[in-house]
Amino acid sequence: MAGVQDQLEIKFRLTDGSDIGPKAFPAATSVATLKESVLAQWPKEKENGPRTVKDVKLISAGKILENNKTLGECQSPLCDIPGGVTTMHVVVQPPPLEKA
After folding, report:
1. What is the spatial distance between Cα 59 and Cα 97, in angstroms, rounded to a whole number?
2. What is the total count of domains within the chain?
3. Where are the transmembrane segments (predicted)?
4. What is the CATH number of the domain that holds 14?
């Protein structure tokens, strides 16, 4: 496929407008691996951070990305700018409240 790069520069935009990254990932990287990276790099001073990969949703070009897909499969033609950085939005799904 023309225009698909081996490495994609991605930054993760958190709900408060701050960013994690940018960082280069191979196009074969799974969405689940990206979520693990977000979890590992999550700023410790931020409240309500994700506890597990299941708490994290990644959104790119208006679509929620599925864990079993690779970056190459999720890449939008709109985001395919040579040397550009793709911004993915991070949504933390709060854990369910425990009933007392």
Report:
1. 24
2. 1
3. none
4. 3.10.20.90
| In a domain? residue 70 | yes
pTM of the predicted structure, to 2 decimals:
0.81
Query: 70: which DSSP letter?
Result: B
Asked, for residue 1, whether it belongs to a domain, the answer is no
Q: Does 100 reside within a domain?
A: no
Q: Is the peptide bond before 82 cis (omega within 30 degrees of 0)?
A: no
In angstroms, what is the C-alpha Rg of the chain?
14
In a domain, 45, yes or no: yes
What does the pLDDT look like over 1-24, one tens digit per residue? 444 457 888 999 998 999 999 999
Q: Which domain holds residue 78?
A: 7-92
CB-based burial label for 81 (10 Å; 0-12, 13-18, 19+): exposed
Q: What angle do CA 56, 76, 23 make, to 5 degrees?
A: 55
Q: Which residues contact 51 (CB under 8 A, 6 or more apart)?
A: 95
Identity (one letter) of the amino acid at 5?
Q
